[in-house]
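Researcher: Predict the fold of Thioredoxin domain-containing protein.
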Amino acid sequence: MSGLRGAVRRLSVQLITNEGHFKSAVAKPSLTVVYFTAEWCGPCKRIAPVFAELARENPAVAFVKVDVDEHPDIAGDAGVMAMPTFQFMKSNVVLQTIVGADDKKLAECVRDYA
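Model: Structure tokens for Thioredoxin domain-containing protein follow.
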């Protein structure tokens, strides 16, 4: 059983499945980093491993991923106009938004807001 628990802990990026799941994730007082992406987005594919590594390195931070094609209402309500977009949130408040695949800025914001 301990092997299973270890495997579960390594699933560090949560895929948002519905609006309720999203609202619950961003309502937390601790940092949540939201990654808005699309399957067809080239820069998203490039930055995805960086996002996953940051999630593994920062277990106290929630990292969630929203596929904008599957959840256009969530993306629209968040004001997402381009992919990738990253929003850093605490208690439903957007602290910072990054548009584009800037891995250095992404790591810097995780460090600054965690």
